[in-house]
Amino acid sequence: MNLNKLRDKAHDNAVKRGFWEGDRSIAECLALIHSEVSDALECDRNNKHSGDLDAEYGMIIEFLCWELWFESYIKDTFEDELADVVIRCLDLCGNLGIDVDKNVGNQITYKTEWGIPEHLFFISRKISNAWCSDGIPIGANNQVKYNLCGAIYHIMLLSKDMNIDIEKHIELKMKYNEIRMGK
């Protein structure tokens, strides 16, 4: 997965949608990422999973009503919310100029014995640690790089463990976000 390419696409889409107009603090961005992690937990608690992702079916109906297919079978599921977490992390990395490919993948030991709540709590902790305890924003220094990229990497490992094609879910959600731009 080329994370820097996805980072650029996520950030460009957020800029086009006006997300970065005005003052947007790192704390606000991190809080929004937390909200996506919480949404993923609620989806899991309510057993809202997309199941097997039949991308071919989505492509077959793309010309008929792709958006309806996405909203009916993918949107607001656990997998979709994980994709949202990654997209928001990538967008913030894009805004801060973080090289995600360089900084992801060498940081954590994945705990296979954990359940989904423990993994999501760990991801939330990584996001929280991207902010200094004294409340001073830390910008694109090593701590924010380490923690944002660590959250992304943990989601990649969790997805692999759960047989979730997270790259496809990210692509589908980014496509859906682009479609919604005009709404």
Textual characterization of the structure:
α7 packs antiparallel against α8 (142-161). The protein contains 9 helices and no strands. The chain is mainly alpha-helical and 183 residues long. The protein has one domain. The two termini are 30 Å apart. 67% of the residues lie in helices and 0% in strands. The longest helix is centred in the N-terminal third of the chain and has 20 residues, at 26-45. The mean pLDDT is 86.
Helix % is 55-70%
Q: What overall form do the CA principal axes indicate?
A: globular
Distance between the termini: 30 Å
What is the overall pLDDT average? 86
Structural class assignment: mainly alpha
**Biggest sheet architecture:** none
Please indicate the count of domains: 1
Output the number of helix runs: 9
> What is the gyration radius calculated from CA atoms?
16 Å
Low-confidence stretches: none
Percentage of residues in DSSP E strands: under 5%
Number of strands: 0
Q: Encode the helix/strand succession as letters.
A: HHHHHHHHH
Task: Write the SSE topology.
Elements: H1 3-16, H2 26-45, H3 55-60, H4 62-73, H5 78-96, H6 100-103, H7 116-128, H8 142-161, H9 166-180
Helix pairs in contact: 1-5, 1-9, 2-5, 2-7, 5-8, 5-9, 7-8
